[in-house]
Amino acid sequence: MIKSIALLGEYTPTFPPHVSTNAAINHAQQLLDVDITANWVSTEDIDSRLFEHYSGIWVAPGSPYKSMELTLWAIRYARENKIPCFGTCGGFQHMVIEYARNVLGVKGAQHAEYDPSASSLFISQLACSLAGREMQLSFEPGSRVAAIYGGLSAKEHYYCNFGVNPDCIDELKQGPLKVSGSDAEGEIRVIEHPDHPFFIGTLFVPQMRSIPERPHPLVTAFLRAVLL
């Protein structure tokens, strides 16, 4: 049976990260010599039957989403039921919000893109936009992401204006979720859940650096997890 993944987001054919998402999946499929169906699903169309059809979710760049709450529901379901979940850029940000609300118990955890005046902003506007920039990353030794890259550093492309609120970093580190990647300034750029087949979020957009000759290792690892 052919496995399927849901690309959660508001697909825009002129938005480079969305075009790159489709391309990166194709690159990884060719490397693995497998056939995986990838369908874009608008966040407002997420419902309880989502995981009857899909074996994994990729929460895509391009927020604000049409439905933040349905997106958080899908992330929670994937986290609790050990279904592969990959979040890039906006997807990373929503994985942080879901975790803060449902694991750390901060029910009012919010994203500044939706409610900039909220009292518990776990995702805030970056002091300096990262959109269009490439930056060096460092990975934690022994982390899943370091194993996937086969090293402790990489250079990646960003397309975002929001990130983890520095005031919430200590609180975010209180639970099982691990901060496994950071930039040169120590800002959080990668999160992963160690007790999960694949639950990884990146503030950067790895699909932007995937090419047919070198499929991105994170995308390839995600597809491998979906196939299991």
TrEMBL record:
The organism of origin for this protein: Methylobacter tundripaludum
Family of the protein in this entry: Belongs to the CTP synthase family.
EC number in record: 6.3.4.2
Residue ranges of every copy of the Glutamine amidotransferase domain listed in the record: 22-223
GO biological process: 'de novo' CTP biosynthetic process; pyrimidine nucleobase biosynthetic process
Pathway annotation from the record: Pyrimidine metabolism; CTP biosynthesis via de novo pathway; CTP from UDP: step 2/2
Keyword Nucleotide-binding attached: yes
One GO CC annotation: cytosol
Family matches, as PANTHER family: CTP SYNTHASE (PTHR11550), CTP SYNTHASE-RELATED (PTHR11550:SF0)
GO MF entries: ATP binding; CTP synthase activity; identical protein binding; transferase activity
Protein name listed in UniProt: CTP synthase (glutamine hydrolyzing)
Entries under Pfam families matching the protein: GATase
Entry keywords, A to Z: ATP-binding, Glutamine amidotransferase, Ligase, Nucleotide-binding, Pyrimidine biosynthesis, Transferase
Catalytic reactions on record: UTP + L-glutamine + ATP + H2O = CTP + L-glutamate + ADP + phosphate + 2 H(+)
